[in-house]
Amino acid sequence: MEAHNTLSECKIDIDIAENKIISRKIRLVEATSQISKEMNDFWIKLRRNVWNLGKDDPRRVIHAIKAGLAMSVVSLFYLADPLFSGIGDNVIWAIMTVVVVFEFTAGATLFKGLSRGVGTLLGGSLSVSIDYLAEKAGPSGQAISIVVSILMLGTAATYSRFFPKVKSKYDYGVVIFILTFNFITVSGYRVNNLFQMAWERVSTIAIGCGICLILSLFVSPIWAGEDVHNSLVAKHQGLAESIEACLEEYFKASPECTAQNADESHKSLEDTIYRGYRAVLDSKTSIEESMVNFASWEPPHGNFGFRHPWKQYCKVGSMLRNLAYTVGALHGCLHSEIEASRYSRLVFREQCTKVGEKVAEILKELGNSIKCMHQCRASVSMMEELNASVQELNMAFHLQPRLLFHIISKNPTEDHWIPPLNSPQNFTQGIQHDLAQSNESQISKENNEQISELFPVEDHELNRKAESSYLLAAIGHQSCKNTHSAEFAETLPIATFASLLIDMVNRLEYVIEAVEELGKLAAFKTKC
Hints:
Blueprint: H1 2-56, H2 59-79, H3 81-87, H4 92-101, H5 106-135, H6 138-160, H7 164-188, H8 194-218, H9 224-250, H10 259-282, H11 285-297, H12 310-333, H13 342-372, H14 378-399, H15 424-437, H16 444-454, H17 460-476, H18 485-521
Helix pairs in contact: 2-3, 2-4, 2-8, 4-8, 5-6, 5-7, 5-8, 5-11, 6-7, 9-10, 9-11, 9-12, 9-13, 10-12, 11-12, 12-18, 13-14, 13-18, 14-18, 15-16, 15-17, 16-17
């Protein structure tokens, strides 16, 4: 009996051990499957990112191929015996030059190549001269002369990098000058033929720069000037689309649509608004100046000749950023915790929309004139129409200031009739009813007759044109004694929105002046 129990216990232990082994195998298989799945997902994402990166800008692929070709060509000077025997171990400097100098645009490559060449030439020449003079001082005086010269020239060259003009244009060349001067001067103390060493280094760097310039300028060149030009055009177009989306989002008529469609439309407009003005704000002055600097080094190409006014592009970009700040504030009105009432939005919708649309139209016209490189003749007439629209908006606020204190009840339990705001007729009838119900109105009956004459129900066009000029003047004569702070706060956003539009017009004038000056300096054509 005991033997049977012992055997049973052994079988149970064996079963438990087998179950543990099976469970461990299962966990191992699951872990292996999970790792395999994650690796597969990683490679899928990597391939997708690599493809999208090249698809967004195919020039990146071309640049990568050209960089690889330049490095392979310069490596032949080290691998081929005939070439290596003529240059020696200093060929490594040519490889380093290709890696450091070869940039995305032709202007950047030309700038860095010339800066490296000139810096190396000046540093090498000065180091050879100082070494020659130091030898005259004898063995003990030579070391002191070298240390003193490095101290003085190194301090002066480093300090010169703090000058804004040197920092923006010649900083890389100064760094190469310091590096070359120190390297050759110190090495010359232990080398007999210093001139030969300096010459080999200068020649190998010249070989690397030459290969970079040939591939950058003559093999599918990528011009920094075209990037600056196209970027400025895109900023105008994006800012105009951002303004139009702001107006559409702020004055949307709340149609009877599904929540899903409303959310999708809102998200699309938000993306358009944010993307438009954010692209202008993100283009920092330092980045623009560096791109303009690279463009100024490029040879004539396309529509861009010698002495093209690239600096004026920075000025236009600065004026656009100044305008983009206002568009950003306009975007902030859409997310204000205190929203304007639907009545006030409807009343000023026509004037505000007209001003905003004119601003966007002028921005598009300016962008198109830069793109085609022609004089923007239409901006004069457009600006006159825009100023007239601004005057209408100002007049609407100046003639009826009490509109902002007009109380419209939102409580359905109160004895006030609030019509649906889906047509000018309903709006007119609602105001007439409010005037008739007001015991404090001094002109309710007279105004009702005048309003009925001016705004007949069947006259749709007249209602749209005059509803915010006469009706609100009548409303403005009502007493505001019972105005509450909540209603007052709810009317402020529309005034803020309108004031930002007017400020936008003032800033737009500076953009127009900058673009017109660019057209004169670049000799834009009269017609596109």
